User: Fold these one by one.
Assistant:
Number 1:
Amino acid sequence: MNSMQCILSGKVQGVFFRSWTQEQAQSLGVKGWVRNLHDGRVEVLAQGDEDALAEFKKRLIQGSSMSEVKDIKCQDMEYDKTYSKFEIR
């Protein structure tokens, strides 16, 4: 299972970004979680096959209709836990 961590900044809190992210993940079969960070950014941990993660990252860059993603930093990572769904934290 491939894992990817992304940190997004911009107008990504208070605009239903986490709910939108969950919908996108579920539509692609991506598992993991999304959460707000104290500094106004959003963190995403995503697990899935390579193609699904690549498409998920493209969607994150575009963002939801009410959000404005100014920066995204993603890295592939080894993760010792496998998730069975995508959740909002």
Number 2:
Amino acid sequence: MADPHEFDDVLPENTARREPEKPVDENLFSRLIHMIVIAFMISFAGSVIGILALLQFIIMLVNQKQPNERIAELGTDVGIWVAKATRYQTAASEVKPWPWTELD
């Protein structure tokens, strides 16, 4: 499971502690290709989140308002991946999201 405090440094009350950003290290054309691929992946992730939300709602209807833990955890993991992908897309991070790095 991912660290719930992983993005604490980007919250408005914590941005004063951030170090100044360095220039982007990789080739900009290569970064553009990665950004296009990641944009498609983010779009797909949005569809997955919508399907998970609908499925979770149906499960909660049938199961006396009890959510499915595995679906909830998968939703959290997808959300964390989207956050990492967005940080890379906006150059807030140099770390590419999965599949280029490990999935947390």
Number 3:
Amino acid sequence: MNLFWYDWAGYIGVALVLLAFFLLQERKLQGNGLIYQLMNILGAIGVMLSLCFGNFNLAAFIMQVAWLLIGSYGMVRGIKRRRETDELP
């Protein structure tokens, strides 16, 4: 079995998303935390690369785009909230 770089990107992406969810359940990460959001975003990108360069699956690709957008939204929202908290006197 030959694994290409995009196969590894997909495997690592899946591992990141699953690890982020596991750590959230274990209360090692917070759902609005930067690390959690980055793990989800990078995981989605890895799976998307695997889909684009390997065997494409539209349903899985749409799910990863949604995962990426939701993670990005959560990251931006968290950064804004931290800035607002830091600005309070």
Number 4:
Amino acid sequence: MNPRDEHHDAQWIGEEAGPIVRPYVLTRGRTEPTRGRFDLITLAVTVRSPSPGEPGITPECHAIVRLCQQPQSVAEIAAHINLPAGTVRVLLSDLLDHGLITLQEPHSETDMHDERLYRAVLDGLRAL
């Protein structure tokens, strides 16, 4: 087994806690976003970087803010930071509440026929 895989597994499974604890802790037990609609194809874009020591901004939130310098779908973000999409939705909601990101939804049905969007979502899902 690759040592990197061992580290990856260790972050998800504790001897007593099991595999669900990390996402639960990251979201402080929340399972739903406080606001915003976060489909797998919803795009998040950073609008500002967090202030140093800004309360409530975890390392995972910092990673999302850096990643979203270019628009990223929820599926892509989940794949890049290796977290479940549900956890990413809650973290994105926190970032939205802090004014760090904005959301972009497809504006019309014609946007849904953009092959780049489908490729990005598929690439994100494959990485999961």
